[in-house]
Each structure stands twice: as C-alpha cells, then as structure tokens.
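Class, look over these structure tokens:
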Amino acid sequence: MIEPRTPVQSGVPRARSEEGRAPLPVAPLPVAPLPVKPATGRFLVLAGVFLCAACGLVYELELVALASYLIGDSVTQASVVLSVMVFAMGIGSLGAKRLRLRAAAGFGAVEAVLALVGGCSAMALYAAFAWTGDWGGSWAGGSRYLLVGFSLAIGVLIGAEVPLLMVLIQRIRRQDPGGAVADLFAADYVGALVGGLAFPFLLLPMLGQLTGALLTGAVNALAGGALVLGLFRRDLTRRGRWTLLVANVVVLGLLASAAALVDDFERAARQAMYGKDVRVAVQTGVQEIVVTGGKHEPFNLYLDGRLRVSGRDQQRYHEALVRPAMDGPHARVLILGGGDGLAARQVLRFPGVRQVDIVEIDPGVVRLARNDPPLGTLNGHVYADPRVRAVTEDAFRWLRGPHTPYDVVISDLPDPGITASTKLYSQEFYGLAAQVLAPDGRLAVHAGSPSSRPRVFWTVDATLRAAGLRTVPYWVGTGAPPAPAARQHGAWDRLTGIADGPDRTLDGTRAPSDWGFELAGPRPLPEGAVPRERVRAAERSRITGLAPSTLVHPRYAD
C-alpha cells in the first residue's frame, strides 16, 4: 500500500534527508508582519503600481514631445524613444531577478533613481540642445545620443518595477501567480492611461515640459518611498531605512531646486540659442513663439525653435512667393498659414485686391502680428485693413468646407519635412486647394530648398501634378542650385532656416540663401509669370520618377 505524501507548498525550500535521497520540506524563514491588514497592504501596493505606471508613461511622452520639438520629425523620435524604451524594459526585468531577495530595498532604490533620472531628463536634454547643439564634429548628433541614453536608462528602471512588485504583492498574501500578474498589469495599464491623458491635457499646458517632468519625478519618489518605508519598512535594516529615506530626501530636494530655478534656466537656454535680445517667448496651445530683435537688431521670428521670419530677407522671400501668383485676376486671395501678415502685405501692394482671407492655425501668431510694433512695421499693419480677414483654424480642415472660389491661393506653410505639416503638402491637401481655385486661378507653394533638399522639392512638384495641377517650379537665391548630390546628414545646429525644415542648416548662424517655389493651376499658366532663368535654375536640380506624397504614405523624409 502506498501511503499518501503531504504536498509541499510552492516556494518553500526543500532539504535533503540523511541518506541524501528524499527531499524534505523546510519551514519558511520568518517574515516580519506588515503594519496593516493584508487587504489594505494589497491595495497600497496596487496604488503604488498605478502611480509608478502613470509617471513612467509621462517620462516616455515627455521625451517624445521634447525630441520632436528640438530635433523634428516626430514619427522618427517617437519610434526611437518607444522602441529603445521597450527593449530596455526587457533588460530591466532580467536585471531585477538579482534583487528579488531584497525586493523592498531594491524597489525603493529603483524608484529613487527613476525619479531623479526621469524628472531631470527634459532639462538635461534641453540644456544639451541649447549649449552644445552647435558644436559639430563628433558631437554633431549629441542630443540625439542623449535622447537614446535617457530612453535606455528610464526603460531599464521601469522594467525592473514589475518583477519587484510581484515579489512584494506575494509577500503580503500568497496567491496564484496568474492572478497576481493580472492584478499588477491591470493597475499598471490604468495608471498608464491616466499618465497618458494627464500629460497633454494637464501637465503640458499648465506646467510646461520642464516643470511637468520635475513634478512627475517628485510624485514618483514620494510614491516609491512611501510604499517601501511605510508598508515594508520592517523588511529593511535600520541602516537601509535611513539610507533610503536620505536618498529620497536628496532626490526631492534636487527636483524642488530645479523647479524653483526652471524659469531662469529657460531664459538662459533661450539666450544661448537665440542670443540675448529675446523680446517675446510664449508657449501657445500650438507651438512656442520666440521673437528676437526688432529695434536695433534684425527682427527674427522662431516657431518651435525654427526660424520662420528673418528681417534681413523676409521681403525677398515673400515677394518671390506672392508676385508670380498675382499675374492675372486677383480680386479674391486666400493665404494658408502666413499669420505673420507678411505675405498679405505683398498681396495688398497689387491694385484690384478686394478680399484677403488668412487661415492660420495659431491665434498667438495673429495676436503677435497685430500687437508687436516691429512685426507690425514689417507687415504694414495689414490687419488694420478692412479687406483682410483672419480665420483661426487648421488649413486642411478649413479647405474641406464650402467656399467661394479664389483667384489666388498662397501656401505659406512650415516646411514639408516637418512631420506635423506633411499633410499640408499631400495630394489630398492640394486636391482640396484646387477645389477652391477659380478656373483660371493660381496656387503658389513654398516647397523647400532645391539645392539642399532637392528630393523634397521635387516630391512637392510630383504631388501637385498628381492632384491634377499644372506646375512651374522656380528658384530664388544667390548663384545657381547644384545638381542633386549625396546630401550630408548629421549636421544639427541650433537654428533652422525658413525653408530648411526640421534638420538644422549647415550654418546655423543664418537663414538659407535660396528658396524653391511652385506655381500651379488647373489650366496652363501664363507665359512670363516666372522669369525663365529662375525656372531653368530650378530645373537643374530636377529628380524624376518620384511618387506623390499622400496622407497615408508621406514621402518627405529625405
């Protein structure tokens, strides 16, 4: 007869009998009791999971947002940050296996380091961009390397959280591993939802990127420290408790000091990027607006760190954009973008203009153009003219509504290489623009530089043609644009030219000296609207066989 054997609980170590054959169960090591009931302790652990997950997602979104603003091409930056971070989370999970025997102390240390690294990441990345962005050489892409480094470090620390929390929640009450994992991930995912919604709707508009990241780090440190020191303090030695307490106090002190100095830091960083003559620096709901000069220095307008208006050559740029399109009927003119009023000033110089509608997405730009004296002087105070009407709306959305046809449409929009503006250079967008054109109307498009970005320029041309429009490409600048050649990548200077898109110009101290434009219309365009030498100059850089850019397949990444 076989006698039944008493089952040994999972996780209880076994000892070997004297003969070294049959394993015998050994009583588990004594565990210090918790200061609260198991149900309360379980709730506190899940609440800690919730808060830590919310903070972790805020760190991810903050890196994506800041990198998109500083480097450009938000799709690439989001892909780099998220993929590196998810990979690093796997490394962190593996590394946490070594801390399972000291799960409470390990979790407290991980949260303290994560709070410091994540909370200061935005400020460190911004500092590297502001003060070292123009170093060149081996540090030409330094801020990109720093972005990857922070993504890797934060990912490793986030990845170490769940294995340690799994040990801690089992420490409270043994349960089926599948049920414990389900509880942890449920709290984790709900926390991620709250963090993902809090970042764009609460932290970013109310506190900004730097202060928002610092506050998130403080919440992270408080949540991790309170959970370990409050619930699992008996799992730590006296020395361990004091060490963790001091570490959290130091982290919170550093984050609080940085938050107190964040305004001075931003002011110094702007001066490092734009010079000391910064007159206006405001974050609207759409973008950051910075204005320098205007009295004794040349006026410059920066939108999200990119030079949009240079007082030195804005007249040459806007005249080249507007004048060819005004050759023909021009009673009704539509300007897409151009909230600064400079394109409208060129339009109003032509007799016979009865109405100018400006569709600008950012009301802050329109307010600046109305109220800033130096910019008002440049644009001739066009908003005081009763013929000018400003509409605050996305140009793509506005074009989808019913409108009376326009004789001229001017597209004075950000460069097509910027991810957020690629839809404004798509085949669908130009199809909508063609619908609001009169039968003999003209569309003028700023298409980037054919000398430095020929592929982007000729993709705009191919996209206009795919929308059923006839095109005349032309170039304006000093000298002649070179034929297409292998373009040097990796240059990342502080300033961007009007037409140079998200990549920094090779010489970050000035705007580019050339621009490319497209004059398009549903019918053949009038002879002589564009000087032949400008057309020939653009044709020298032509690239054939390019596919048009669409909403679902943007093709402006060069």
